[in-house]
Amino acid sequence: MVQWTDGRRAPALFHPGFVAAGSALLIAAFVTDFMYSQNALMQWANFSAWLIVFGLILALLAAILLVIDFITGRAGRIAWFDFILVAVAALLSVINELVHTRDAWTSVVPEGIVLSAIVTVLLLVAGFRGWRVTTIANPGDVP
Amino acid sequence: MNRAYLRGGAALLALVAVAACDGKGGDPARQYGPNPYLPEPHQYLLPPMSVPDAVGWKPGETPTVPAGMKIQAMANGLQHPRIVYTLPNGDVLVVEGNSPGTEPFRPKDYIQGKVKNLAGAGAKGGNRITLLRDTNGDGKPELKTVFIDNLHSPYGVALVGDTLYVANTDAIVTFPYTTGATHISAPGKMLTDLPGGPIDHHWTKALVASADGSKLYVGVGSNSNITENGMAVEAGRAAIYEVDRKTGAKRIYASGTRNPTNLAINPDTHKLFAVVNERDEIGPDLVPDYLTSVKEGAFYGWPYSYWGQHVDIRVHPQRPDMVAKAIKPDYGLSSHVAALGVTFSKGETLSPQFADGAFVGEHGSWDRDPLNGYQVIFVPFVNGMPSGKPVPVVTGFLAADHKTVHGRPVGVGLDKTGALLIADDAGNTVWRVSAAH
Questions:
Q1: Inter-chain touch A98–B19, beta carbons under 8 Å
Q2: How far apart are the first and last CA of chain B?
Q3: What digits encode the pLDDT tens for the residues B347-371?
């Protein structure tokens, strides 16, 4: 729980939970890509394609909620480092989904799994930094 | 493995550049004949898709034929006609069928299915055979009636003696036939099963009887474009089978044929020929579909390689031993034309130009820009083998602007007068091309 200096509880940001949930799916896609690269069973690659699609849907929801966090005064300033981590991961995942539309081996190896690995690293860093891409608003900022 | 990932890192840098690449197909004429031009394969970010809208034929509209010939609609209002087959008494069978339907596996399947359906590929098939009887040979049937109903995605059909063989998507079934019959109500008896589901990606089962009538040959397509549904579902697929007509015993006659969409026996040499549709999504000019004589025991490459030893890197694990075995087909038809029909000409009935050779129905491309196919061509033969440039015979299926398509040719055959019949599945019509005089 984040508290303001006057002891009141700060209103929760909406977007970090969705950043985290979407990241979980995109990171899982790296795991399923890895499994496919080991055993060439297509179902693992199919899992990856679906995980990335749903990860991106959650990323879109997170973006909408980020706007709402600003509109409702929950968010303070944008935290550029975190925002860029997450935004780059999302853009790379769009490309990665396109790579995963290829048929069979080259839908994953080599470009697909490399993209999944990069996305995983970016999102883990974002995760250790708390999944949020803004600061929490100060009491004086509340409308 | 680590080296593969390093290569992947380098490839990533090139990825954005590749995404911007437009990749237009070149002149199809470079890919006709025994030594087609084969560019380097590409891996795409966006699968190249380009399909015209299917709009059907308005009354009076027809495909176009060369001077000295005329074309007429012999039957219309059919339900996805795919094959035309003339019985000895001159009656024409029209097989109406389409895919039994496949379940989407991946996000891609939803989108690709919708795009293909724009061009009329998704229409429901009649699952029946319609009989046309044109006694006086004027191309206007006096009788049009349902001959056999309640089939299961039928495609190939062949009559030997008094038995009619129908290739459903999962089995060859037999029906008793008497000359002049206009309806068969007897239930079909299964001669042998064929690889059908699960998936049934390439569902058509082409059928032809050997010249002496003792064997049936069956074309069985692969269960994927290039093994993306897994190797397990490819067992017994992408092959041409030989089936003993009496016992139903079968064996693989030739393999590595990705989708052998139709078969025909050369009337002079009695050799088996096939049209085969090759793989997609490695470029607008890869891989050429082909017409080939089918050599017993031969391996034609799919999935490991194409046109001999050109390796397809999408297949894993790779099989250099199989690549080494792969033989080249006889005659390239150019890429993505989707050759679905083949029949040999019979003398000079239609035109002296078409005395010796084969007509090939090209359904037309969905993943090539500019579009390719959408016509019936004639491939000249010399000494029993394809030789020389193909000649367009029936064109005009595609509108001049290439934005819409009226119909798409599938199976081709000759009627008892030697006129050329064409099943048009998007136009739901059977066309008849005859000499104008």
A1: yes
A2: 69
A3: 878 989 999 999 999 999 998 999 9
The residues on A that touch B, with CB distances below 8 Å, are 37, 40-43, 46, 49-50, 53, 95, 97-107, 109-111, 113-115, 117
Terminus-to-terminus CA distance in chain A, angstroms? 21
- φ, ψ (nearest 5 deg) of residue B97: -160, 165
The shortest CB-CB distance from A46 to any of B8, B47, B106 is to: B106
B31 DSSP 8-state letter? G
For B10, the closest chain A residue by CA position comes to: A111
- Report the alpha-carbon distance of residue B147 to residue B152 in Å, rounded: 15
Cβ pair A97:B316 closer than 8 A: no
Q: What is the ipTM of this complex?
A: 0.90
Query: How far apart are the C-alpha atoms of B334 and B326, rounded to whole Å?
Result: 19
Q: How far apart are CA B143 and CA B117, in angstroms?
A: 32
Cβ of B314 within 8 Å of Cβ of A103? The answer is: yes
Residue of chain B minimizing CA distance to A107:
B314
Residues 2-41 of B with CB under 8 A from A: 4-5, 7-9, 11-12, 15, 19
Measure in Å the smallest separation between the Cα of A7 and chain B Cα atoms.
Answer: 49
Instruction: Please tell me the distance from the alpha carbon of residue A83 to that of residue A75, in angstroms, as a whole number.
Output: 13
**Contact residues for B418 (Cβ-Cβ < 8 A; gap 6+):** B346, B347, B349, B350
B202-237 pLDDT, tens digit each? 999 999 999 999 999 999 999 999 999 999 999 999
Task: Please tell me if residue B104 touches chain A, with a CB cutoff of 8 Å.
Answer: no
Entry pTM: 0.94
The 3-state DSSP class for residue A88 equals helix
Residues of chain A found within 8 Å of residue B224, distances taken between Cβ atoms: 103-104
Nearest to B390, CA basis, from B69, B30, B39:
B30
Instruction: Extract the runs of DSSP E, i.e. beta strands, from B128-167.
Output: 128-133, 143-148, 157-160, 163-167
pLDDT above 70 covers a percentage of chain B that reads 95
DSSP state letter for A105: G
Amino acid identity at B407 = G
Structure tokens at B110: 């939803």
The position carrying tokens 């569902």 is B203
CB contact under 8 A, B314 and A46: no
- Asked whether the beta carbons of B329 and B293 are under 8 A apart, the reply is no
For residue A110, give the nearest of B11, B224, B230 by CB distance: B11
DSSP symbols for B370-408: S----EEEEEEEETTEE-S--EEEEB-SB-TTSSEES--
Tell me whether residues B108 and A49 touch, CB distance under 8 A: yes
Q: What is the pLDDT of residues B267-287, one digit of tens each?
A: 999 999 999 999 999 999 999
- Alpha-carbon span B370 to B372, nearest angstrom: 6
